Amino acid sequence: MATAAEIAQLAATLAKLAETLADREAQPPAPARPTPERRLLTVEEAAEYLGVGRTLMYQLIKNDEIRTVQIHRLRRVPREAVDEYANRIQAPNVDAA
Fold this sequence. Notes:
With 97 residues, the chain is mainly α. The chain contains four helices and three strands. Strands 1-3-2 form a three-stranded antiparallel beta sheet. Helix 2 (43-50) packs across helix 3 (54-62). The chain is rod-shaped.
């Protein structure tokens, strides 16, 4: 059976542990290292960047409206290809005149 002194020491240790845990939670997390803006996007990232759904992005790629590059087994969309497509669809339609 524990003596009164041992119980008091255990209580003091637990109080110190609780204080340490509270201090850790109060500290803001270390800032994440900023990631550089990537030039090659996944299809999902390109769709989000353009503001369309994933299915439409795959359709645009299939119809060669947005070019992609292949890195081994990975398919990536150059950010410039998305920008070019957006500029192309925003340009005034010359054939309409």
